Description:
Layout: E1 4-6, H1 11-24, H2 29-32, H3 38-49, H4 56-70, H5 76-92, H6 100-125, H7 136-156, E2 157-159
Antiparallel strand pairs: 1-2
Helix pairs in contact: 1-3, 3-5, 3-6, 3-7, 4-5, 5-6, 6-7
Amino acid sequence: MESYIPRFRGAVILSILLALILTLLPLPEELLRWRPEWVALTLVHWALVLPKKMGIIIAWFTGLLLDALYGSSLGQHALGLTIIVFVTLRLRLRINPFTLTHQLTVLLIGLGSYLLINLWVLGFTGSAPLAWIYWLSLLGSLIVWPAYHWFMMRVFLVNNRFDD
């Protein structure tokens, strides 16, 4: 199995900040519904590749920061991102984390749970979105995942393979 180490100190934090910036970038109205869940994708990436560096506490604080940036209910994104990281860390033990189909399965389960929690909170607060259009961000996230994962691997990680 391949082993990776971060290319530089603070790679996880820098990648989360990059994901927050991508989340806040303005998009045209046609593309807004398809916007990938950049922060969730970043947390899943780190949970798959470096599970000892990505923990539930980091996901919780990242979610609280996302709640503050969106102005949403406090804890809404924090709970969802915590569940994504938990599910990813649990499923990582049962799958090959370097196979694309397994990664997409984890993403489908994790992001689906995250969006379902957000939909539940939005419905509870009385601001539920349109039915099927809400789920387009899940599809957008699944579409960009291979390129985003490849980018994250090349920019933030070094292969630390020890040949016998």
